[in-house]
Amino acid sequence: MKKILSLFICIILILSLCSCSYLEDLTPHKNYDGELIVHFIDVGQGDCTLIESDNQFMLIDAGEAEYGATVCQYLENNNVKTLSYVVATHPHSDHCGGLTEVINTFECENFITVETDQQTRSWLNVLNAVSENNVNYIDAKVNATYSLGDSTFEILGPHSSNYEEYNNFSVVIKATFQNNSFLFTGDAERLAEHEMLDYGSNLSADVLKIPHHGSSSSSSKEFLSAVSPTYGVISCGYQNEYGHPHKETVKSLNALGVTIYRTDILGTIVATSDGNNIEFFYENTDEKVEKPTPVSYIGNKNTKKFHLDSCNGVKDIKAENKVQFHSREDALEKGYSPCKTCNP
Ligand SMILES: [Zn+2]
Ligand SMILES: [Zn+2]
User: Using one digit for the tens of pLDDT, what is the confidence trace for 148-178?
Assistant: First the structure.
């Protein structure tokens, strides 16, 4: 473990010496002008997301306090000078812990969070840092929209100001850039998911940051089908003590044909959107690591039905009648209807 850690520190040092960004290392030979870039920063068992649009930055959570320095280094490597928005989704330390160091290190213009009576130490530290650094405090209100560079984001939750389970206080944000959207859910659980569904918000998104590290206390079937993501990102620690992501969640995501990217396996994950297409890059490209396999949809030219490639119905399709689609939309556009068994 120590060896790996020192190797990691060496890599970080070399990277900063070359003054090349961490992102460039993850995503070589690309020019990201005019794109929305979402970094799911690996903070072990916790959440940390950096969103970048036209050189403006927003940070949602920063993992436990011990990851504060890692997050600050990552921001520095990506030439972040000012954070336009810093969001603390809820008072749990695996989300807001690292924010104190970030707020004390970088110029932060706005801080978005919800009022709660929870008095965790990490939470009080963050609130202190916000007031000491004169950061503009914004109370998260459903339907409020803000702009970040060329993209916009909207607050979709929480709906109540009183929950027994603190995870449900999570600020839920949907970021939209042209035809692509990302939904960030913090640790919102089923209750909060159902409030959003009942309220009738447009939850659909191309990428879903799977709520609560993939716990089965979240990701109800109704919520997942309303979001109907193509990609799901799970932020959790390698072999974490909670068993995240729970197998029920992974099963539900598989059933919907969602391609899953996990920080415990892939390390930091970067998604880029040009407004129509989303590409993924990740830190851990070791060949031994099991890579996400994009789900493909198989159509039957005869029946004009399409299936998930895992559906039993696919086995019976003759090779000459098989046609492959890149996405569900692609299949629908070409006049194919979804199989009633696998529900692609
Ligand atoms: Zn959490
Ligand atoms: Zn939590």
Answer: 999 999 999 999 988 999 999 999 999 999 9
**Hey, which residues does 113 pair with through a beta bridge?**
139
Please report which helix (H) or strand (E) contains residue 224, including its range: helix 221-227
From 3.20.20.370, 3.40.50.280, 3.40.50.1370, 3.60.15.10, which CATH number describes the 20-282 domain?
Answer: 3.60.15.10
- Kindly identify the ligand whose nearest atom is closest to the C-alpha of 46: 1
Domain boundaries, the chain: 20-282, 297-338
Phi/psi of residue 308, nearest 5 degrees: -70, 150
Query: 45 CA distance to ligand 1 centroid (A)?
Result: 7
Q: What's the rounded mean pLDDT across residues 330-340?
A: 88
- Nearest-CA neighbor of 173 among 207, 150, 149? 207
Q: Record the pTM.
A: 0.81
Whole-number Å distance between alpha carbons of 36 and 180: 9
Q: Which ligand is nearest to the CA of 94?
A: 1
Ligand 1 mean position to 64 CA, how many Å?
Answer: 10
pLDDT range class, residue 26, cuts 50, 70, 90: low
